[in-house]
Amino acid sequence: MKNVVFFFISIFLFSIHVSAQNFNNIVAFGDSFTDNGYVNGHGFNRDTNGLVWVEYLALLIECRYVDNRAWGGARTDNGHYMGFDWSGFNWQIDQYELTTNAEETLFSVWIGINDYWDNKDDPSNSVRNIKTGLQKLIEKGGKHFIVFNNFDLTLAPGYGPETAYHSLIPAVQELTKEFNSELVNMLFDKKTGLAKSFPGIEIYFVDIYAFMNHLVSNNQFNEKPWKGTYKFPEPETYLWYDEWHPMTSCHKQIAELVLKELKK
After folding, report:
1. pLDDT tens figures, 23-39
2. Tell me: the pLDDT tens digits for 62-87?
3. Total of domains in the chain
4. Is 94 helix (H, G, I), strand (E, B) or coil?
5. Helix, coil or strand: residue 33
6. SS3 string of 45-59?
7. DSSP state of 222
8. Cα gap 70→73, rounded to integer Å
9. How many CB atoms lie within 10 A of CB 242?
10. Are 128 and 191 contacting, i.e. CB atoms less than 8 angstroms apart?
């Protein structure tokens, strides 16, 4: 009898796990690493040579609908790194209302680097802004979230030896580490973390920092950007689409990384 009970409990838990991955809707918030162009009134440009990661993820999980609200250049507050007061993460959320089944809707958040890439802002403010935005989404009915930390953008050609930003590398690297550490604490601190404060939600954490470090250190990519090369050589030999953004092949790997987190 105990074995029968265990069997049915196992089937029940397995069913819960599988259904948790059955997301029919993805709502994406972020900046140029997620922006797929002006689709449904959202976005500026697609800063890669093909699909972005959230589009690949939708294909992998057979998601029927993607609402990509990311804008290139978005900050974590309401504004844009160029100074205008809209397109930012919290602005994106303020424009959004949940109209789909919350249990079948996955929210993604990848944001922050436009706040401090030039060593001008405190990443603590960025984390507070992200917390505010996530709380708004929870109040709007959100239950399932993918949250990224930030990778070391100084790996990109935009901080190369001949650029105006090369001298900022040590400072930006430290700011990225501070951001990532404070983000994890904000999400998962055992006493004050968002997951503790809202036990009914589910947060999948994506360590894009470790992923990109590993990718760069274990592969021999062309150090120059692929965009603008007149002969357009083999794209698989390039990691960077332009001075700041990865190729679509990297976006595909990011989607596969996210899928692994969803399956845990």
Report:
1. 999 999 999 999 999 98
2. 998 999 999 999 999 999 999 999 99
3. 1
4. helix
5. coil
6. CECCCCCCHHHHHHH
7. B
8. 9
9. 18
10. no
Q: Which residues contact 181 (CB under 8 A, 6 or more apart)?
A: none
- Give the global pTM: 0.91
Does the CA dihedral 2-5-11-13 come out positive or negative? negative
Sheet of strand 65-68, all strands in order from the earlier edge strand to the far edge: 65-68, 25-30, 105-110, 144-148, 202-206
**Residue 2 reports pLDDT greater than 70:** no
**Tens digit of each residue's pLDDT (9 = 90 or more) over 167-225:** 999 999 999 999 999 999 999 999 999 999 999 999 999 999 999 999 999 999 999 99
Residues present in the chain in total: 264
Partners of residue 42 on adjacent β-strands: 39
Residue whose tokens read 């504004």: 79
Q: Does the pLDDT at position 5 exceed 60?
A: no
Domain extent, residue 33, equals 2-263
Q: What is the pLDDT of residue 234?
A: 84
Of 262, 60, 228, give the one whose Cα is nearest residue 147: 262
* CATH number, domain containing residue 62: 3.40.50.1110
